[in-house]
Amino acid sequence: MYRIAAGFLLLAISTGTGAAGADTLTAIEPRPDAPPLELEDLDGREHALDDYHGQVVVVNFWATWCPPCREELPSLQRLREVLGPDGLVVLGVNVGEDADRIFFFTADYPVDFPLLMDRDATAIDTWPVRGIPTTFVIDPEGRIAYRAIGAREFDHPDILERLRGLQRSLPRDTPAAE
Amino acid sequence: MGPSLRDTMIAILALAVLALATPPAASRGETGALEAHTDATSDLTTWTWRGEDLSLELAQLLPDQTRAFFQARGFGTEHAERIAGHCVFQAVLRNHGQRAAIEVDLHDWRSHGPEGKSRPRPDRDWQATGSQEELPEAARIAFRWALFPGEHRFEPGDWLMGMVLFDHPPDTPFDLTLRWRMAGEVRQARLPGLRCADDQRE
């Protein structure tokens, strides 16, 4: 048992984002419309991507058992803290797990952005995702502007600058997030 | 020791030195460095191959680790055993270059073991067998997303982690030929001396 635990620990340690790729987002050109996304969060509140039209939205597909997903969650929280007041929205889409498992997980990985539940993995199948974590940045027009496959440091200065650039394209009458 | 025997020994030694000095076999100009690290605590080995743009880590997983992972996600004993009976690695593949996208299809990879050539078992191969029909939905979803995707395109900076399964018994030594496509060109590299985890070692 000790050997098994040590093996898992070694895997978890060895999978850091490292320097390579930590600050990269792939620009998607031309920008396709984002697929629909309508899911409940842990409190049973319905979220639809359309609700955030006019804002920059970061959609992150993840699972609690996925080490790179766990690794990047704190940076998504920091991203929300830095750019959320200016209108950026972060949506975490958990793939295939129930509310209890996610709830207990957040005791170790506290985040205050919505964690949506794609219990039967039907939502993820409508997005161009083949592995998790995969993250999309949706522009204020509802189009996919950037994609990142694998974990990132989402509060890396280069990523923040790109997202600020998208936010600068916000319509002037768009209200900031709460 | 007669001269002919001595000459033979020298030739063998020279070949051995040459083999050690030569990087893993590659084609299309792709060269890379292969390193192996064995963790002192777990006694499990991780191989890391790093080429100009692509890097691949393959970390041995014990059958017990694989079994525990899937049982925790709703697999019954029989189904978990079926997966754990394979040679399983946790793989991390990265496009660490800045030049172009890398397209990977696990169907194009080949392992060369004592029983001959075979290829990894990507996620869609398992789905095609229908062997998961009796599994709970959560277990099927976890299995699908825990396995390294069969086909994927990695833009610069992209990387993924996932399990790669080979049809080898525990402790089997094998070489692995990687193939990928970059800028319209097929590249390959051979990683020699890999080995499946041995469940019997303590």
Describe it for me?
The complex is a heterodimer of chains A (178) and B (202). By secondary structure, chain A is α/β, with parallel strands linked by helices. Chain A contains five helices and eight strands. Chain A has helices at residues 2-14, 67-83, 99-108, 122-125, 157-167; strands at residues 26-27, 38-40, 46-48, 57-62, 89-95, 115-118, 134-138, 144-149. In chain A, the strands form two sheets. Chain A has a six-stranded mixed β-sheet. In chain A, strands 2-3 form a two-stranded antiparallel sheet. In chain A, a hairpin with a 5-residue loop joins strand 2 (38-40) and strand 3 (46-48). The longest helix of chain A is centred in the middle third of the chain and has 17 residues, at 67-83. The N and C termini of chain A lie far apart (47 Å). The model of chain A is unreliable at 8-20 (pLDDT under 50). Chain B is an alpha+beta fold. Chain B has one domain (28-195): Immunoglobulin-like. Chain B has five helices and twelve strands. Chain B has helices at 3-21, 63-71, 77-84, 123-129, 137-146; strands at 26-27, 33-38, 45-50, 54-61, 87-95, 102-105, 110-113, 116-118, 151-154, 159-166, 173-182, 185-195. In chain B, strands 1, 6, 7, 8, 9, 11 and 12 form a seven-stranded antiparallel β-sheet that branches. In chain B, helix 2 runs antiparallel to helix 3 (77-84). The longest helix of chain B is centred in the first third of the chain and has 19 residues, at 3-21. Chain B is globular. Classes of the chains: A alpha/beta (178), B alpha+beta (202). Chain A binds chain B through residues 3-4, 6-8, 10-11, 14-15, 20-21, 23-26, 63, 65-68, 95-98, 120-121, 130-132, 147-151, and chain B through 39, 41-44, 46, 57, 59-62, 64-65, 68-69, 72-73, 90, 92, 94-96, 137-138, 141-142, 144-146, 148-149, 151-152, 154-162, 202.
